[in-house]
């Protein structure tokens, strides 16, 4: 399915009211949701137009978290204006330098930039939790179930859904203890911007933030569904986090549990994006996600979940759902 990148009909009037009527509206990209983005290029300045069309999208959580982050010294886009009825938001433009492409083009920058991204999470953990819903057991279960609801049928598997839920109950219970922080939930190299003329990392795609365990965003960064993060680099950065925070073994148990939960969710989401939403580029990312998932399942804290996977999903059916079949 080719996304429609024509500007929304309400955009010209919206921009004119904000003093951006002289800007050319240029398509940038959509994402895995219904949101679309455009660059508004005016003489000597630019901004980003977010199109978050109701009822599919609600930009209010993005606006609230952006303001919470900037109020605590983090670089989220400044909000220039919004029309909630039309689902339009005009944002500060962080440019085109994403961490992903920068690291791929200059591998020598990888360690430095990932260290900076880990250090940002350390600071975020010190800032406490925003006024957002909790990342509770119901959310964890709903997300993990995306694998059994979408991936397993897609590859022709009938699995023990009740046993799957019970296994996650066993491993997630310890994760619910301890302090909560603001969990951005999609913190990875394609959502981190390198702002020109600044050492600050810019943040994007945080509208689904919840209050939960600090290991979640760390595993989102270091087990990135969209680019390979070598296990040696992951180990170095986990040690950096440990030395800065005093994280103990319970934290690293939670890291692997949440890694497995997140990766199971992503396999399900990528399958759903193909089957339901007509976005066939996502299943090809699943083999990488399965590799991360299997690394997490090898951790002792995941023993019940690992046993379920061994009994229900054979190794040769863990891959691209467009190509593997039972």
Summarize the amount of helix as a percent range.
Answer: 40-55%
Indicate the overall shape.
globular
The SS-based structural class is: alpha+beta
Ranges with pLDDT <50 over ≥5 residues? none
Give me the number of helical elements.
11
Biggest sheet: strands, sense, closure?
5 strands, antiparallel
Question: Which range does the strand content fall in?
Answer: 5-15%
Order of strands across the biggest sheet? Answer: 1-2-3-5-4
**What distance separates the N and C termini?**
27 Å
Question: Mean pLDDT across all residues, rounded?
Answer: 95
How many strands appear in the DSSP assignment? 9
- Backbone CA Rg: 20 Å
Strand and helix order: HEEEHEEHHHHEEEEHHHHH
Report on this model:
Helices cover 44% and strands 13% of the residues. By secondary structure, it is α+β, with helices and mostly antiparallel strands. The protein has a five-stranded antiparallel sheet, sandwiched between helices. Strands 6-9 form a two-stranded antiparallel sheet. Strands 7-8 form a two-stranded antiparallel ribbon. Strand 7 and strand 8 (201-203) form a beta hairpin. Helix 7 (215-222) crosses helix 9. The longest helix has 27 residues, at 249-275.
